Amino acid sequence: MLEKLIAYLSKELDIPAEELDRDTTFESLHLDSLDTVEMLMDLESDLGVDLELEEKLATLGELADFIESKLD
Q1: DSSP 3-state assignment of 31?
Q2: Of 8, 51, 62, 66, which one's alpha carbon is 20 to 30 angstroms from that of 72?
Q3: What does the pLDDT look like over 3-54, one tens digit per residue?
Q4: Per DSSP, what are the bridge partners of residue 59?
Q5: Residues with Cβ < 8 Å from 8, sequence gap 6 or more?
Q6: 5 in helix, strand or coil?
Q7: What is the DSSP-derived secondary structure letter of residue 22?
Q8: For the chain, what is the domain count?
Q9: What pLDDT, on the 0 to 100 scale, is given for residue 15?
Q10: What distance in Å separates the CA atoms of residue 72 and residue 18, rounded to the nearest whole number?
Q11: 8 Å CB contact between 2 and 43
Q12: What CATH number is associated with residue 51?
């Protein structure tokens, strides 16, 4: 899942994938709440799963773990 997130963000933000990893924070990517909502909607559509966040996630790794828990 982490690889999918990295590929998505690399494409959307025009950032080399090598610069993104599990510990990359959303704050460091300068994603605002609208960007985050759009990303989650895209991922929900792509994965066919509801990704309603109950808490604020800070890193790509946290989001990847959250998504994987929803897919189980």
Answers
A1: coil
A2: 8
A3: 999 999 999 999 999 999 999 999 999 988 788 889 989 999 998 888 887 7
A4: 25
A5: 39, 42, 43
A6: helix
A7: T
A8: 1
A9: 95
A10: 28
A11: no
A12: 1.10.1200.10
Task: Residue 4: name the closest of 49, 53, 54, 52 by CA.
Answer: 49
CA distance 9 to 40: 11
| Phi, psi values for residue 24, rounded to 5° | -65, 130
**Domain span including residue 54:** 2-71
- Exposed/middle/buried for residue 71 (C-beta within 10 Å: 0-12, 13-18, 19+): exposed
pTM over 0.90: no
At 59, list the tokens.
Answer: 């890193």
Cα separation, 26 vs 9, in Å, equals 10
